[in-house]
Amino acid sequence: MKAVLFDLDGILTDTADYHYQAWKKLGAELGIELDEAFNEQLKGISRTESLALILAKGGLEAQFTVAEKEALATKKNEVYKKMIEQMSAKDILPGIKTLLYELKEKGVLLGLASASQNGPVILEKLGLEELFDTIVDPAKLSAGKPHPEIFETGAEQLNVSVQECIGIEDAAAGVQSINSAGMAAIAVGDETTLGAAAKVVASTNELTVDLLTAVWAESVG
Ligand code: G6P
Ligand code: MG
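A: This is the predicted complex of the input protein with 6-O-phosphono-alpha-D-glucopyranose.
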């Protein structure tokens, strides 16, 4: 195992909930009610694609021009940016800091594979930016999760093969992306939504170097 590619929202920090709250607020303004089950579909996918799914849920896709949709996405992002303003190292999810430091100590490369354009800012707020060897820029990809490109690009940027990586995710689209890239996936969350991963754990606390190494070793046989 030469590298680990991390999703951000819901793995390094609990911004997955902030995204949900911000979308819920926009949805309410449009008369579209969002619940947690629906929100699972929004995890891992881009801002534009999320808005498209929300508008489709309310049967409002045809009601807005491209420019109006852009304004709605920006409105959501402004609410989200307010929510993340006060974030700091205290918002790193349990076990993550220890895991990152232990991986670094072992010489394992770390990459960020998040669809979020806010990724670099959040890493900085968490004080983790120096630990990461690379960040995939989601704006440069031709396809988002569940397409494998983001994880493939992460491996390329680190100069390792996909077989030498592990991917960590909390979204079904993300697990699919990792699997399609030919990497072993570890998911954090619910077995029913994330069962396609090689291993599912309930909490980030369970992500240890030993677990990652064992899952990787099993994946390469
Ligand atoms: C991640 C999150 C999504 C979010 C997307 C875009 O994939 O899981 O919930 O919509 O990033 O984030 P952004 O910060 O660019 O709006
Ligand atoms: Mg996520």
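The mean pLDDT is 97. The first strand starts at residue 3 and ends at 6.
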